[in-house]
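Request: Have a read of the protein record below and say how the chain folds.
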Amino acid sequence: MMGQLFVYPTFLAICIAGISRPWIGLIGFYGFVLLEPQWNWRWSIPADFQFQKFIAASVIIGWALQGFRVPFLARSAKQAVICLSAFLAVGFLSTTQSIDPQLSAFYMSNMWKIVLFAVMAVILLDSPDKIWIAIVVSSIAQGYSAIRINEQYFQDGFSLYAYRAWGTKGDNNLYSNLTVPLIACSIAACIYSDRLWLRLTTGAIAILQIHQIMLLDSRGAMLAAVGMGFLILWVMPKNSFTIRSTVFTVIITVLLAGPSVVREFRSSFESGENRDSSAESRFQLWKAGARITKDNALLGVGPYAGQRLVPSYYQGGLNATHKGLHNLLFEISTGFGIPAAILYFLYFLIPWWNLVRLKWAHRSRVPLPKWYGAAQLAVIAGIPGYLAGAMFSSGALSESPYLLASIGLATLSVAQVESMREQDAEPGSEGEQDSLAEGH
């Protein structure tokens, strides 16, 4: 009943708002993607109700009514959008010669929608408030699932979803990889919010998301989260609140990590003779992926079709017709080819590198605007988190990393516009304001 009382009115409001204000529809679209109401309220909402399809339609209609207006985009944002669009075009070209047209058609039917809304996010998130709201909504939307996963564990004494899928986003590894970039969003919102209730909410969500990663027993996501933690320590402002919060989070994480989590994490560093079969098979799969890529370097063998060749390329062979590569790089390179793989990763690396560079450029500027500081922290920490975790199980069809990269690109564009406005208002302060706009 709660689902019907909350989800349907929210859905209707987003659809209506999306027509007059497409950016609301866009953020609502990602909110519903991450919230998964068909799963979280599956006892009262039909599993096949296409919330996202209707919201997407309202966004496109609203944008069309605005004449498909494109705001100022930074040079880096244009470059990244071109890279992602070219990647998609190469994917469709590769599909025409796929060794498994059905698999490739399935993959591309999802990928083009992800790419479309990633590009629309770069365009429609054209103000500080919109970027800030996108970060907060992303955190809270997935945070509800993190609450439910933790709730099941504390009620039953074991994590059911370490062994079965949560929602429609894949197995424990894939869902963990979807969550990793959103942990960065939650922490960023907690640090930069000026409202106590939002700090407490997003801070609690971040802790639950971290515990969720541990409960789902995803070694790749655990490693990614640890690495992401060091990046957060580097990027975050150093003050009494962030230092106390960091100490508190570390203590809570250590207390929540039981013996099974510690064993699972430590097994990632075992030597070859002591490595378990799952970890050992990953290395063999990656070797097979590298060889498939080498033999099909230009266009690959068709999106998502590389798994068809893994059994024959696997050392010693496999008694199977398909075998997933469990690696983002090789999933893309075997399916799309090396040029497309470069284009794909550039979409994530362009915003990351530009924000890292600007982090150094204005490292002495304190405080940063909350929207910019939050986006900077989330992108600099979250994108490497996604890429690292996805090297152990892929996640190319998870929406959260694309949204985060788009937030980064939108931030570069909006920061440049804001800096130009401030320079016009205060002509004598050009040197200081250039620090946010320089080199976009």
User: Anything to note?
Assistant: Residues 1-69 form one domain. The first helix runs from residue 2 to 20. Residues 15 and 55 are 5 Å apart (CA to CA).
